[in-house]
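Hey, can you fold this?
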Amino acid sequence: MFKTLFRYPRVSSRHASGPLAEERRTFLSHLQSQGVPRSTLLRYASQLLLVAGMLVREGRARIARAQITGCAKRWARWQRRRGRAQTVKWPAQRFDQVACAWYSFMGWLREESPPKPSYASQLDAWTSFLHSEGLSEITSYNYCWWASGFLQWLKQEHARLRQVSPAMLDGFMEHLSSKGLSRVSLTTAAKVLRRFLHYAYEQGWCQRDLAQVILCPRLFRQEDLPAGPAWTDVQRLIAATDGTTRSHLRNRAILLLLAVYGLRSGEVRGFCLEDIDWTRRILRVRRSKTARMQEYPLTATTGKAIQRYLKTARPACARKELFLTLHAPFRRLSTGALYHLTSSLLERLEIASPKRGPHALRHANATYLLNSGSSLKAVGDHLGHRSLSRTQVYAKVDLVGLREVAAFDRGGLL
């Protein structure tokens, strides 16, 4: 590994004769098998030699993360004193990243269990109940997040779940309101809290069933408008990625999936290589809210964009996800990465849109389909809605239909 990685024999010999050489060679071979480029391997190799020299004195047997952090800070301060670094932050961060990755791979890292959250057993039971109700992973996670926030607030207020009162519930809602949450978020919190408290009463954790005393802002059905850019602006977004760089090829394929199929961010992030049937030209989508599979015909434009990305831009590694980061360590794209993709393009092209994330393209897709003459049922099926009420909100921006109503001849009444 070292002889093929380094061009100069003296450099290769220094790495081969350094501490923990075989262990470093094993880790570098693993990175190479994951498709890590040579430039990154060189950087890791140099950092690993340094890490091995400093941490071998700490002992290999199950080193704690705090020990690695301490060594990283000492190394960064030494680099700064020698004038090789302007700040302590970045040298320490690089040292910590490489050392933790290496020690974790070798099984030497002693992971310390995080402190258990307040009411851990109750939260575990609540999570199991949500799964038994058939809720999706995302919905279950959100419900647990709200319940955990409420229980943490009780702990900060030195209150117990068993003695919770209507005044305490009002105090928690005021606490959320003071944090600047929107009316929709406050209503969501109240809905989850009602369900959680009813379940807590059934389990005997509360003395009273206070689910019905929680007050929240009133929301009117379909009071909001879909907040997406115009379809001509969506076309400009896609055209802006018509390049040959790796990021252009990947982003173009992502934007086409968001715009043409109206997919959610999590559905695009969850795409796997096996979800595309190239023989039948079929795209299989696992719906994030219902967890059911839905098949779509793979359009020629989208298929060509995905093929170009797979051939020239996607990292060569063993991961099954379709869309990955372009730099090692390769991993599935995060929610923030997709949000940055759409929001930065909207800002660069100066496109006005109330929503800036990937969901704005879902709204734009639905609005475009309705304005093109598709029925609400057809649009709902395309978006994967379980009920027509989810799709009816887009009827409020059916501009073609509204123009027909406005142009209706009222026989001189006006």
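Oh, and this one too while you're at it.
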Amino acid sequence: MIFAAASIAAVVLFLERMERGTPCGKVSPPSVTRQSPRKEAPGKALTPKTPAREAAEPAAPKKGQQGRLITVIIDDIGFDLRIVEELAGIPAPIAFAVLPHAPHAAEAARLLHAAGKEILLHLPMEPRSYPAESPGAGALMVDMDERQIRRQVRENLTAVPYVSGVNNHMGSRFMEDEARLTVVMEELKKRGLYFVDSRTSTDSRGREAANRAGVRFAARGFFIDHVPGYAAALENLTGPSRRGGENGKPVLMIGHPHPETLRALRDALPRWQAEGVRLVALPTFIRTSADENRNAIAASDKTPDRKERVR
């Protein structure tokens, strides 16, 4: 009976192992699921699976938002070093235009240069509102002769170190005088500097004078903070007013060292990134705009010579 019982137990154990698919005398390893190799369809390459990390990346910009280029200049630098330090800390290639005879002009330029920022001379020029509104010390006036203009430009350039270019401060009257502007451009050409027209006059002759002297040129698209306040500045930075930057056409914005403008710039950066907008350095903007300048030069070659001598 004992032998019969042992035989029955052995048969039962053998059947249980057969059901589990485990060969007798071996321990079953942990189960591993293996995926059969995918067969390649005739004439068609196998499409690789998307890595898991790609699912966590930001969504692509919407159609029509890619390729926008924006450049920002902050004018009137040289008075408040505290806000200059804050602006210099923004992780973006913002350019800064320094007034030559502001109390902290040279110090601000050195601070910005140390932060790797682009620096311009913010060159004072006579406005139409003069003398009710003064452009300040070192201004170029329309009653100056050629020698006086050259001397004043040199003095102002000496007052601001590390400059790569120049833009006008005020100047709605002086910027309409092509003959005197050409003298200014000739001085910039000698030093390899570019010129940015702040477009304080719709009759500006800045482009024509720059083209005549062979100076690299750019012009403002619009002001960030012409209307005071944070809401207006943010709207200009992120709203419909910058539509000129669509389809790769660059837009040049000019603002001022106001706390509200600083705050708006900080808030605009993540919005631009989400929309595929690129904030580019001023020299990049000027190179991108080169085709437009060449077209302007070609057009001016077909018009009568308007150059006048400065008396």
